[in-house]
Amino acid sequence: MSAGRKNFLVKKVEEIRSRLMSLQPKLAGTIVAAGLLTTLNISTAEAQTFVLNAAKNPLEANNFGQYGRMRFVDLDGDGDQDIAFSGVVTPIQYMVNNGPASAPTFTAVTGTSNPLNSINSVYANTFGDLDGDGDQDLIVGDWDGNFFYFENTGTTTAAVFTEVTGATNPLDGLTNGGNASSGTLVDIDNDGDQDLVVGVNDGTVVYFENTGTSTGAVFTQQTGTANPFNAITSGNYNYLSFVNLDGDSDLDLLIGTGEDGVYYYQNTGTATSPSFSELTGTNNPFDFINIDYNPSNMYYAPAFLDVDADGDLDLFISQEDGEVNLYENTTPVTSVFNNQSTSSAFSSEVVAFPNPVKDILNFSLNDAIGGTMTISVKDMTGTEMLNESAVNNGSAMTIDVSSLNAGIYMLRISSDSKVAVVKFVKQ
After folding, report:
1. CA distance 21 to 30
2. Of 179, 337, 347, 356, which has the highest C-beta tally within 10 A?
């Protein structure tokens, strides 16, 4: 099927979905748009559309200095995403998000008010909870392939970063085997702890599995077939961003490079056993960025944030000149079904409401799935936030999501070899 035909069908499906959503109370849980998408075999990633939008870009007027690389992270515990920006400029630049979710504004925090003020802005930064205390710790990489670990000895609302060295540093002695360490903390094997995946200047990706625990990280390099990124050789000076783009409950990979634009790798494996396949041409929703690639302004670094609170993730790309472009995701939010087993067809109809939700999320699953179902909620990095069991009795079920921060989440309903995944927005 041609790309144009797919786009036409997707638009028609979304028109039908919108009409059905307006009738949601009368339909009592029967929303079929997601099922139609599955029948048409149009993946969410292929259908997504990203459009350059300077007017909606909250960072349009900012310049962060040469070779800037940004991470979104909530360092003040208010439920929205702030910015930590690494690059040639020192120290690491920090901008606090003043909201609202539908039109965030970012304000630079400097001097001693900046919790990152004492940390030289080296090559790249990444955040994650490595000691299980609920706040965000920090790993930075330098131009020589080394890593440095800063434990957050403050709180979830008032970060204080303290460098850890020697034997108590879980990264002690680790290098990426090349130059320009661009690490990303992510639970890539879905075992509940943070692994470290590193882009290298030669275009390869190094994988350090966390073989410890969520409270005591131990990083062990995996090579050969044990490294799910072993076959990737994309350009140079890789900068990695993990995100669930196709709604199948596992994490896909976007790589910004120094001189070769943006690569997209779809996770065709599972949440616990990833396998990455490159999508090119019209199958790559970011291919238009490569077409417009400017060789005089290189070193693309992607990061995702729902900048307009419409339920999908928008793309920010920082560049060599220190500026940041926003590519708005103009794709309507849809529900997505995925078959874990090709021998078991899954044709259920599911609805989750209200969406967006503040406290209690209702959902119904009209499929004769016997036994107990597992209900889990994951954020867009793949981290599991909630998990409980339920029995499908044919009526609406509920899950309390009041403890979640505002943002985009995936509700995953599974039983035996069958799974349904629905995206929702927490206000």
Report:
1. 9
2. 337
* Residues paired with 367 in a beta bridge: none
Rounded Cα distance between 46 and 15, Å, is 18
Amino acid 346: pLDDT? 34
Q: How far apart are CA 358 and CA 407, in angstroms?
A: 11
Q: H/E/C letters for each residue in the chain?
A: CCHHHHHHHHHHHHHHHHHHHHCHHHHCCCCCHHHHHHHCCCCHHHHCCEEECCCCCCCCCCCCCCCCEEEEECCCCCCCCEEEEECCCCCCEEEEECCCCCCCCEEEECHHHCCCCCCCCCCEEEEECCCCCCCCEEEEECCCCEEEEEEECCCCCCCCEEEECHHHCCCCCCECCCCCCEEEEECCCCCCCCEEEEECCCCCEEEEEECCCCCCCCEEEECHHHCCCCCCCCCCCCEEEEECCCCCCCCEEEEECCCCCEEEEEECCCCCCCCEEEECHHHCCCHHHHHCCCCCCCCCEEEEECCCCCCCCEEEEECCCCCEEEEEECCCCCCEEEECCCCCCCCCCEEEECCCECCEEEEEECCCCCCEEEEEEEECCCCEEEEEEEECCCCCEEEECCCCCCEEEEEEEEECCEEEEEEEEEC
For 59-63, 265-269, 421-425, which range has the lowest pLDDT when averaged over its residues? 421-425
pTM of the entire predicted model: 0.73
Interatomic CA distance for residues 344 and 80, integer angstroms: 40
For the beta carbon of residue 129, count every other beta carbon within 10 angstroms. Answer: 19
Task: Say how far apart CA 170 and CA 148 lie, in whole Å.
Answer: 10
Provide the residue type at 193 as one letter. D
What mean pLDDT, rounded, does the chain reach?
79
Query: What is the dihedral sign for C-alpha 111, 112, 114, 115?
Result: positive
pLDDT in tens, 131-153: 999 899 999 988 888 889 999 99
Let me know: does 301 contact 218? Beta carbons within 8 Å.
no
- Counting Cβ atoms within 10 Å, is residue 290 exposed (0-12), middle (13-18) or buried (19+)? middle
Backbone angles phi, psi at 142, to 5 degrees: -110, 180
65 pLDDT band, cuts 50/70/90, is confident
Q: Tell me the pLDDT tens digit for each residue of 305-323.
A: 988 877 788 999 998 888 9
Q: How many CB atoms lie within 10 A of CB 100?
A: 11
